[in-house]
Amino acid sequence: MTDQKVIERANAALAQEFELDLGSMLPDALFREDLGLDSLDTVDMVVVLEQEFGIKIGKDPAIASIRTVGDMHAYILGKKREISPSPE
Q: Is 88 part of any domain?
């Protein structure tokens, strides 16, 4: 799956879960300030992303640094590369 497809799937899953407009899922959009999500929504976001991509996020401390949609994209793409690294 291409990086762009991963980003599209992540955006669609979160937009559906939190009833957000896909157009608001811009890389620099802040989850709290721009999208209105709170700390409890973070737990739901983790569950949604784990289910969507079949990955284990759990209590990964890196989650705490995710503030924007772009941060979330980078995190998911990093997890994807951990699971199936690019051939060298």
A: no
